[in-house]
Structure formats: C-alpha cells, structure tokens
Amino acid sequence: MTGFAVKAVIVLIAIALLGVLIARFFRRVTPVRAATRRQRMPLLVVLIGAVLIVAGLILGLAVFTARYTPQLLPARIASVAVFVVGVVLLIAFRNWYLEVGTDAVRFRTVLGREKRIVYRDIASVRTVQVGGRPKVIVRGRDGVTLRVDRGRYQLAPLLAAAGDISP
Questions:
Q1: pLDDT tens digits, residue range 53-70?
Q2: What is the pTM of this model?
Q3: What span, in angstroms and rounded, lies between the C-alpha atoms of 111 and 59?
Q4: I need a labelling partner for 122 at 20 to 30 A (CA). Which of 62, 82, 96, 144 fits?
Q5: From what superkingdom does this record's organism come (predicted)?
Q6: Strands across the sheet with 122-130, in order?
C-alpha cells in the first residue's frame, strides 16, 4: 500500500467511527425491558471494538508488510495497541453482565469475576451524577461494590429493596 492509501483508510475509519459516535450520542437511551433477566453492555461497545480491531488489522497490514524503517516503529506500535484495545473491548462486553433478582443482584465484572450483593446485606446506596447521567453505587457489607448507570439498566427491585425509590 502506498502512504496515501494508508492515510485514506485511516481517515475513513476515523470518520466512520466519529459518525457512529455522534449518531449514538443523539439516540435516546431506553431502559432494558423488565422481562430480560441478564442485562449487558450497550452494543456500541461491540461496534467500537470491532472498528478498532479492523483499524488495527489494516494499519498493521500496511506497516508490517512495508520495508522496515525507523519511522515505521511508532505506526507498528500503534497498530498493535489499537488491535489490543479492540480485543479488550470485545472481551469486556462478553464478560460483563448485571442480573437484578428478587433477593440479590448478581453481576460479573469486566475481568470475569462473578459477584453478588444480597439485598439484606446492602451497606450503602448512593446516586451520583457522572457526565450528566445518574449512576448508582451500591456497597455490600462484605466490601463488594457495584457501579451502574441508573438510566440504562433496569434496577427497580434493587432500588426498592435499598429504600431508594426516587426517580
């Protein structure tokens, strides 16, 4: 690939990613249906991860097939980093979930550790604003902490059990 073609592909990927982010930003967030037990991250995480993997592969293909010069070293490092970040996002999407039950909330962290907070063992519940969106922070007596976006996920049983039923 020529230098112009590589730059054109990178610019097109950046424009596509920016367009997707802007479109998702203006889309209204709707809470997950109550019938769904396991709630997952938004599909935007998968989309961004896939775009980063493709961008890393294309950039890697361009810089690793070219004849080595010292100027290509930063591009090689960047291509590997972009690819790895995309893979990490896909793994995070696959691992993380939230399951709000009638007696406890179960969740898996991004790293895959399964945790549980029984409603009677809730030590504190706080609602904070992060980026203009309400975020619920629940701490159990055993030190387990759950931080989740209140507007994106269905948390009614958890909030009712914790005594925090304000909207």
A1: 989 988 888 888 888 888
A2: 0.67
A3: 27
A4: 96
A5: Bacteria
A6: 122-130, 133-140, 145-149
